[in-house]
Design brief:
single chain; 54% helix; 2 strands; 138 residues; mainly alpha; two-stranded antiparallel ribbon
């Protein structure tokens, strides 16, 4: 399935050599978990979210990044983080410009439906600097 979300993640995630481990644990940073972490970074744009997505802590991810032999992993991490942040920036701009639907409820019933640009999000996005690789994206 070329159009599935997981295949899109695989295209965005940079390739790398997993960090060599002195000993392996079933709940540790196995090569497959390292790859899933990099894919999650490319999808989410946050280290904390990506670590939680693979069942690991943010602190252990940073420890893995600092290990000897982690240069390829660290480079993939940086690339995936840039991709994820650019994706989140694009989503925020889209939501800010194309709008959101807001329902106002009272006593379990809808009393008002409003659709329009999210001005607060738009102003936040305009104040924030764009992601670092923004000029490289087409």
């Amino acid at each position: 399935m070329p159009d599935s979300p997981s295949s899109a993640l695989l295209e965005d995630a940079p390739d790398f050599t997993p960090v060599p481990l002195a000993r392996t644990r079933h709940d540790g940073w196995l090569p497959a978990r390292q790859r899933m972490f990099v894919e999650a970074l490319a999808a989410m744009g946050t280290v904390d979210g990506a670590a939680r997505a693979v069942g690991m802590s943010r602190m252990s991810a940073y420890k893995l990044r600092r290990r000897p032999g982690a240069e390829s992993f660290a480079a993939a991490w940086d690339g995936a983080l840039d991709t994820g942040r650019a994706r989140m920036f694009d989503a925020a701009i889209d939501r800010a410009l194309n709008g959101v639907t807001t329902l106002r409820l009272r006593l379990g019933g809808v009393i008002d439906i409003e659709h329009g640009p999210d001005r607060r999000l738009m102003m936040s996005a305009l104040r924030a600097p764009p992601p670092p690789n923004r000029t490289k994206r087409a």
